[in-house]
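Following the same procedure, the fold was encoded as tokens, giving this record:
***
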Amino acid sequence: MDFLFNPLVLLPLLFILYVFMSSFFVVKQQSMVILERFGRFSSIRGPGLHLKVPVVDKVAGRMSLKVRQLDVNVETKTKDNVFVKLKVGVQYVVGRDSVYDAFYKLDRPDEQLNSYIFDVVRAEVPKMILDDVFVRKDDIANAIKSELQDAMQAYGYNIVRALVTDIDPDATVKMAMNRINAAEREKLAAEYEGESERIRIVAKAKAEAESKRLQGQGIADQRREIAKGLEESVDILNSVGINSQEASALIVVTQHYDTLQSMGENVNSNLIMLPNAPTAGSDMLSQMTASFIASQQMGEEMKTSSEALKAAKAKEKIELQR
């Protein structure tokens, strides 16, 4: 045991162990390792366990082959002078055959991508008004991808996809846009309400017109049937020796008392019938009889006067002819 702890023995053993351990290295999946010999590029190793010459060979760096994403916030101005912030996400990857170019030609790829994104966004967005920025965000993303692909391909980077993930105008502009949208919706709601009210008014007018027409038709039918009933009543009374005037007066008086009877049956009725004296029926009959007689006399007198006037005119005409 003392032999193992002897410095003259221990140091060479440690050196041999170090050389042995440094001769091997492991490369993870989806990664590539750049190996240099005395500071000069030697080889590129893929995933797995590898052997290198200690001290002579050195692992210069590791390059991931996974898809990476760079998020960039860009503030710019639109064609209608609205400041807007865009969040752009760019997904990129190093090709397996382009590891050498990606490692040796470009030192800080994120900064390079960031510069190109700013340049493209600030060249494309000022050509559009704010509404077009929202509508044509895919065009902006395609322009970014095309520009970056052309620029970064020479450095071994492939652009998988570019996305405009957020568009954020100034706060005052968003408030104005919300007010405009609210006003448009209120206007549309008012138009719908006005149209609905117009339809209700038209429908109500049509219903009232139809109701009035049917009501008028009902009244006409009612009066027609009443007239028929009165005519039949007069004919029946005439058949028993009562003349038309007396029959009409009798019918009116009968209806008068029928009306009084129906009013008496309804205790809650507020109807007042004038005249309403006990002698109203007989007075009405007398007045109707007198009026019938007077009208008959007036008719006969008018008939006599008309015949006399016709005779006078005929006589005057004969005299003129002579």
Observations:
- Helices lie at 7-22, 99-104, 109-124, 130-135, 137-152, 171-239, 244-265, 280-321.
- The chain is about 60% helix and 20% strand.
